[in-house]
TrEMBL record:
Highest taxon above the source species: Bacteria
Family note: Belongs to the DXR family.
Pathway field: Isoprenoid biosynthesis; isopentenyl diphosphate biosynthesis via DXP pathway; isopentenyl diphosphate from 1-deoxy-D-xylulose 5-phosphate: step 1/6
Keywords: Isomerase, Isoprene biosynthesis, Magnesium, Manganese, Metal-binding, NADP, Oxidoreductase
Keyword Acetylation: no
EC annotation from Swiss-Prot or TrEMBL: 1.1.1.267
Pfam families, per database record: DXP_redisom_C (PF08436), DXP_reductoisom (PF02670), DXPR_C (PF13288)
Residue ranges occupied by any 1-deoxy-D-xylulose 5-phosphate reductoisomerase C-terminal domain in the UniProt entry: 143-226
Protein name, entry field: 1-deoxy-D-xylulose 5-phosphate reductoisomerase
Length: 389
């Protein structure tokens, strides 16, 4: 029996992970499931999977969770510290699928006890790439990518020499507004931004796909995970979302990963790695698909990509500042405080303010310093939004 835990179990990635393990219950023993506000889902899955502990991120919901799991024999807990405590319980494989910088601390705790960490939470690598990789190395723990592009690159690199890689190309659907006239973007609504043309995902990453902030995070994630220099990483708009990434080698060969847009592929690959097992995903009929199209991303439509390149070059704690500002700007857009195109302006203003304060981004990369940078970035994003209001 493999001991597994799922962080962010009530979300889109979490539910897809549960779908896979519930098909083969005798193989797994679930240690911890965690969620946020969706107590009903968390409790239902905790009962079905007969987990050891169920944790909600919100302390005010502890009573509700306790009530929902009364007489089940399942331990309950709440709050950020409880998440990290659950992550430090002995376990073989942990899915990191909390959304946002809140996923960093539990992921580090899981690595510290030597678990294989399946990383959907890209924010961990964006905010603290060095720290995450160092923690994995120091504890002999393995980090497996779950983001579809990074899983695709990882698969294309199997058996290859990383030094023979000339470039890595990650694809982007272009999001909900890829064909909108630029002048209409400023007035785009939350509802419009929340409809992804190809993928069914959580609301935050869906909006980040429309603004290309998701791809911006993924550029940084690629640099951190694979250790390649930023000038070797490209973004290609591919509206069909069937080719997830391509790796170009020094002999001119390009290896592409092609598959249906279903996260259960990347999740299942990380779950069964190093084996390849059968997965319940659609088999593509390429004759039916007919053609695949690609185009370069337009700089004016997607300022997030330019900001990500600056962050990659800057290094240090710039990723934490970028992500914190992005998360807060996204909160602001969802709450109706700022418009769609203002998100990038807010993030840029925050990054400039960090650059104006010598040393801030060059502090040592510890969990405390990363979270402090994240906090300051959110405060400054709030101030930037206030100015715009
Ligand atoms: P969802 O919004 O669907 O789910 C997020 C999960 O995190 C939920 O379980 C939620 O609980 C929980 N959560 C929310 N806030 C907190 C918090 N402050 N502390 C602890 N837990 C919290 O997100 P997705 O599943 O879409 O994405 C999860 C991660 O995976 C993100 O980092 C995303 O970028 C990445 N990813 C997602 C993909 C996808 O297809 N969805 C593809 C590639 C990467 P609750 O809902 O109960 O409140
Ligand atoms: Mg992705």
């Amino acid at each position: 029996m493999r001991r597994i835990s799922i962080f962010g179990a009530t979300g889109s990635i979490g539910q897809n992970t549960i779908d896979l393990i519930a098909r083969d219950p005798d193989r797994y023993r679930v240690v911890a499931l965690t969620g946020g506000r969706n107590i009903a889902q968390l409790a239902a899955d905790a009962r079905t999977l007969r987990v050891q502990v169920a944790v909600t991120a919100h302390e005010d919901l502890l009573g509700d969770l306790r009530e929902a799991l009364a007489d089940s024999g399942i331990e309950v807990a709440a709050g950020a510290a409880a998440l990290s405590e659950a992550a430090s319980r002995p376990c073989d494989w942990v899915m990191s699928a909390i959304v946002g910088a809140a996923g960093l601390a539990p992921g580090l705790a899981a690595l510290e006890q030597g678990a294989t960490l399946a990383l959907a939470n890209k924010e961990s690598l964006v905010c603290a790439g060095d720290l995450v990789l160092r923690t994995a190395r120091d504890n002999g723990a393995r980090l497996l990518p779950v983001d579809s592009e990074h899983s695709a690159v990882f698969q294309a690199l199997a058996g290859e020499d990383i030094h023979a890689v000339e470039r890595i190309i990650i694809t982007a659907s272009g999001g909900a507004f890829r064909d909108w006239p630029l002048e209409k973007l400023a007035a785009a609504t939350v509802e419009q931004a929340s409809a992804h043309p190809n993928w069914d995902m959580g609301q935050r990453i869906t909006i980040d796909s429309a603004s290309m902030f998701n791809k911006a995070l993924e550029l940084i994630e690629t640099k951190e995970y694979f250790g390649v220099s930023p000038d070797r990483i490209e973004v290609l708009v591919h509206p069909e979302s069937l080719v997830h990434a391509l790796v170009g080698f020094r002999d001119g060969a390009l290896l592409a990963h092609v598959g249906a847009p279903d996260m259960r592929h990347a999740i299942g690959y990380a779950l069964h790695w190093p084996e390849r097992r059968e997965l319940p995903v659609e088999r593509l009929d390429l004759a039916q698909v007919g053609s695949l199209s690609f185009r370069a991303p337009e700089d004016t439509r997607y300022p997030a990509l330019r900001l990500a390149r600056a962050v990659m070059t800057r290094g240090g704690l710039a990723g934490a500042a970028f992500n914190g500002a992005k998360e807060r700007a996204l909160d602001g857009f969802i709450a109706g405080r700022i418009g769609f195109t203002a998100m990038a302006m807010v993030v840029e203003a925050v990054l400039e303010r960090f650059e104006g304060r010598t040393g801030l981004l060059d502090a040592e990369m510890t969990l405390d310093n990363v979270m402090e940078t994240d906090h300051l970035a959110r405060t400054w994003a709030d101030e930037a939004m206030m100015k715009r209001a």
